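**User:** Hello, beginner here. Are you able to go through the protein record under this note? It all follows right here:
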Amino acid sequence: MRPIATFPVVPRLPARLARLHDLAYNLRWSWNHDTVELFRRLDSELWESSGHNPVLLLGRVDQARLEEVAADDGFLGHLDSAARSLDLYMASETTWFRRTQVPQDGALTAYFSAEFGVTECMAFFAGGLGILAGDHLKSASDLGVPLVGVGLAYRQGYFQQQLTSAGWQREEYHDNDFHTLPLVLETRGNGDPLLVEVSYPHRPVFAQVWRAQVGRVPLYLLDANLEMNRPEDRLITGQLYGGDLELRIQQEILLGVGGYRALVALGLEPSVYHMNEGHSAFLALEYVRHLMERHRLRFDAAQVAAAAGLVFTTHTPVAAGHDHFPPELVEQYLGDYARMLGLPMGELVALGQASPGEPFSMTVLALRLAAHRNGVSRLHGAVTRAMWYALWPDVPVNEVPIGHVTNGVHLESWISREMKEVYDRYLGPDWREKPADTALWARAGQIPMDELWRTHERRRERLVAFARRRLRAQRERHEPARAADTQSEGVLDARALTIGFARRFATYKRAALLFRDADRLARLLNDPERPVQILFAGKAHPRDEPGKALIQQVEQFAREPRFRQRIVFLEDYDPAVARAMVQGVDVWLNTPRRPLEASGTSGQKAAANGVLNLSVLDGWWEEAWEDTRPLGGSGGWAIGHGEDYPDPEEQDRIEAEALYALLEEEVVPAFYQRAAGGLPRAWIQRMQASITRLCATYNTHRMVREYTERFYLPAAAHAALLLAGRASQARHLADWTTRLREGWSAVKVTAVSSTPSAVTVGDELRVSAEVQLGELKPDDVAVELYLGRVNAAGELTEAAAFPMQPTRTIADGVYLFDGTGAPCPRSGLHGFSVRVLPHSPLLLTPYLPGLITWAAPNTLSHGPALVVMSSATS
């Protein structure tokens, strides 16, 4: 029997408790311990059973309890304090953005992501990508950056994990009840839900819009589970990363196209659109279509204008992690769209193909349409440039226009309450608002050793208690008779060195590297004088059978008698489990197969709590390791020296041996070497070094500031420039680019001066080159001397470009360019070439695909055009 009407039932709060509603519906509570403690105080057991969901808590708490606390002066004082804190936060006029940035009309950024992990009760995320997106919104809120989030409201979200009696991952999906989550349905003036329409083959699909308020930042989530949609279309927002390729393209059309239209329907006009991974890349096409319609532009002009305001961040160095679709599926879903854009279908498909005949790649589409592109760590930026250099033919790999912004974490969301109190005492309260202040974090060295260590020991004790509770619940399903023995049989020791390993279980993350020599590991863990224990947690993608096999392997080792007390696998990894682990372990272990870790942020969460990292030099740790070494003690340990191996088996063997050696010879001895008072002083010094050097850099406040200053504000200014005056500059740039492409085949470097037999260190070169431009003019191009060292393969390396200026016209369309000031600061074999690139003050990058011309070897001449200028006389 189906109802004839539906309506939400909301809690009846006494008038004195009305502010509990405001606190529950602003997700700032998720990083405000005082507000969380207020809800826990209302009913601690219900807070836990509700999944840390204050809206559900308020709907289920006994009415008598509400009446009781409404007359409790202590509770009311706590409530008033929390409400006042929220009000002051929301009304603040002194945020970083207001204090430091010149006000810009319309400088709003829309941040699109397929997942958002703001807090565990809103299961719209699968792992690190979503947690990073949630932390991005939180820091944008704290900093006052004008930003909105856009995603999908999944009815079931990601799966809950249970292990079978054989240790195999089993997925369970539970429906989200949006009416009992901190979500508000967006409505029109008449109270009806605000609806967004997106065209799919032969039918429209509608979505309503839910809003989650993340501090000062609204997060808009589209929900297609509406009766007006066909039953199969209601499943578009059914599961995160569920279904087949057709469902995936449907989801990504709704996210990109529908998300853009939702902002229009809400009356919002962002000037910048940030695509967090390629899932939302279709929004770039919708933005182009919107500009074509609004400004009456051709596709090429609209594309130029749109690109200026598009930022694309890729997180995936693993080829299989990028979304690809068969061209025929794209044609099926975007055929009508191509006609709206005025493009032949083949041209639209080609926008997402690295080369003709390949599948349609969402990453390629985003790279082609966005003017701002970045990876998520220094190493990942280099890896990404090497992955996609073919999109910019003949551009040196190190100059491919993809930069990097290293990921961070939202510190207040992940630091334990006890550590926050320590930081408040010794760093001062400013660390909360200015977590990127290096001078502030330098005070960590002033934290008394005994206080830092006792605080950490309490967190380890809490982690062991937490893990025992979780383990007991797991065993109740498989071994009911032994579940109560979890604590009495000695599973985990609150005083033992505790290692944590928690992340997505993909094969390249090598969760089983520790078990390559199980006997050696058993001796290490069971040393009666220096015991060691390991907590594992993590999920494998539902279709990742090798990842599931890794979980089973770890779980089977954990069940062996020799490991049973020392190794625990905690089911259903989520933010609650993550917080307990990063706040309570002593060492955070990370063993990816370099260079396949884009960034990784779990180790950053651990470091913020004084936990030491033990990691392969990959992702963020590759650069963080260098940050900690200048101090007396490093902030952890590095497995290997950053080597790359052609043979994965050899890499595993060598790095497993290095891991065992580090544990046996450095990590375990340092932990158990105690001075007077039982303090491991050398260990605590490493903790202080880690906090001092890492917290100021590896946080999302620094990250969001970097995005704002390097991308959002310049992108907004450039987009405004191109769209001003009925988009006259965009039209001009599009016409100029068309003229450039039509005339580029005539561009040639016809003659270059010869190089001398030897040059003295410190000398500067002046090189002349004859360049044929055909119908183009010298102002249309940049001619550059490209000078660097020559490696053993005869290739230029460590090269730099130096501008050359036009000095005279040689013939019709042929010009002489002269370059001076190219230094040779080091000895060794050097070489140079000359290249021609497009040049316009309206271009953000000179690297337009296919438009670069290099001098051919046979253009080199031996004559007086080359002058060697000695630095002593010039």
About this structure: Residues 700-743 form the longest helix (44 residues).
